[in-house]
C-alpha cells in the first residue's frame, strides 16, 4: 500500500506543477512563510491566557489553592476544589515561577535548596595511594 501512496503523491505533485506552472513552488513557499510570520505576529500580540473557567459552575473564578505550589485550584464562586489539577498557568500569570519551582524541588528531594547548590566536600580527589 505504501508504494502506491508514494507514487500517487508524486503523480499528484506533477499534476499540480503542470496545472500551476513553474512559479507555483515559489508561490507555495511564499504562502508558507507568510503564514508562519502571521502566526508569530498573532501569537505575540495575543499571548495565551490561563483558563479560569470552573468545571462545576462555569464561571471564570478559578484561583490557586496554595500560593506556594503550582498544584490545586479552588473556585471563588462555588467553592469547587481540585487538589490534583495543575495551576501552573495561573501561577505563571500571577507570580514568578522560579521561587515556587526551587522550593518544590527542595521539598521533593528532602533537601534545602541551599544545600543542593553547595557541595559538602570541596577537596579535590587527588589522593595518591601506593
Ligand atoms: Zn465554580
Summed up, what is this model?
This protein is 51% helix and 11% strand.
What is the share of helical residues? 40-55%
**Total count of helical runs of at least 4 residues:** 5
Structural class: mainly alpha
**What string, H for helix and E for strand, traces the elements in order?**
HHEEEHHH
- How many runs of DSSP E, i.e. beta strands? 3
Residue ranges: pLDDT <50 for 5 or more in a row? 115-119
Sequence-ordered SSE layout with sheet pairings:
Layout: H1 2-20, H2 24-45, E1 62-64, E2 71-75, E3 81-86, H3 88-94, H4 97-109, H5 113-117
Antiparallel strand pairs: 1-2, 2-3
Zinc ion is lined by residues 54, 56-57, 59, 61, 75, 77-78, 80.
Keywords:
130 residues; 5 helices; binds zinc ion; 11% strand; mainly alpha
Protein described:
There is one protein chain. This protein is mainly alpha-helical. It folds into 2 domains: 38 residues; 56 residues, no CATH class. 51% of the residues lie in helices and 11% in strands. The chain has 5 helices and 3 strands; from the N terminus they run H-H-E-E-E-H-H-H. It has a 3-stranded antiparallel beta sheet with strand order 1-2-3. It is elongated and about 65 Å long. The protein starts with a helix and ends in a 13-residue tail after the last helix.
Amino acid at each position: 500500500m505504501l508504494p502506491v501512496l508514494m507514487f500517487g503523491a508524486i503523480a499528484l505533485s506533477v499534476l499540480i506543477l503542470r496545472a500551476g506552472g513553474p512559479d507555483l513552488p515559489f508561490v507555495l513557499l511564499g504562502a508558507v512563510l507568510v503564514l508562519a510570520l502571521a502566526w508569530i505576529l498573532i501569537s505575540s500580540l495575543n499571548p495565551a491566557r490561563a483558563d479560569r473557567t470552573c468545571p462545576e459552575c462555569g464561571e471564570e473564578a478559578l484561583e490557586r489553592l496554595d500560593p506556594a505550589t503550582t498544584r490545586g485550584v479552588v473556585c471563588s464562586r462555588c467553592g469547587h476544589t481540585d487538589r490534583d489539577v495543575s495551576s501552573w498557568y495561573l501561577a505563571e500569570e500571577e507570580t514568578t515561577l522560579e521561587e515556587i519551582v526551587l522550593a518544590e524541588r527542595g521539598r521533593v528531594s528532602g533537601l534545602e535548596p541551599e544545600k543542593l547548590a553547595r557541595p559538602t566536600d570541596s577537596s579535590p580527589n587527588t589522593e595518591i595511594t601506593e
